Amino acid sequence: MTNEIYACLWFDGKAHEAATFYCSIFNHSRILTENPIVSLFELNGKKIMGLNGGPVFKMNPSISMFIHCTTQEECKRIWDQLSEGGTVLMPLNPYPWSELYGWIQDKYGFTWQIMKGTEDRMMPAMLFTADQLGRAQEGLDFYTSLFKHSSIDSKKYYPEGSPFAGKLSYAEFKLDGYPMVAMEGPNEHNYTFNEGVSLVVNCQNQDEIDFFWNQFTSDGGSESMCGWCKDKFGVSWQIIPNNIAEIMNDKDHGPIAMQAMLKMKKLDIAALLNA
């Protein structure tokens, strides 16, 4: 199986505005489709969903977007534009691990880590904090065991002598070829994973939906509504059929399918089509 994976950002009515703002900053960016609830867009060729879900959830730094730029000038350009109305979490400065790095929360609440690197890249970054601190390696092993074409590509740990020695400071991995980052935040943080930033898995058939749903909701995970669930680390996932847009956008059947979906936890493709 090959599964498209991408991040979903939860907004309170500003998904279109945010998507337009982000697309004005990054190269190879465009808005793919839009409706009053969802804005689907690409940044640097990476798909992202903006969801107008209301005020119930807010994004936090537990899942951010990690940006590698090949020049300091590009780092500063992106930083300056994302800074508009935003909040600096770590200033854009030289650090022991990078000649230029910064972490910022933009005016919509999403956070970005920007670093000078050897190639232009964009990757969702998971930060294990609070009750999940110390479980990043377990998370890497779990996630890469579920998806084919997956790998743990690099790992760095806090050094001996550090109060955080043995904790994973930075790791890069791929899920079905989709690059991601995992980190541990050993300092005190007042946030952890929530629905504000989730990960979407597009599935080709009901067997794949069943597989991922069962894996994520077992061993401490939990079910939610409309294809949403949480894994044992608290990360939110949306497990959806890859033709969900086609089903929901059908002029005649779409509204009926939507009403059926609102009553479901795990999505049932046949039930959506036959509603």
From TrEMBL:
Residues 4-115, 122-240 form the PhnB-like domain. CDD domains: PhnB_like. Coiled coil: none annotated. It comes from the Bacteria. This is VOC family protein.
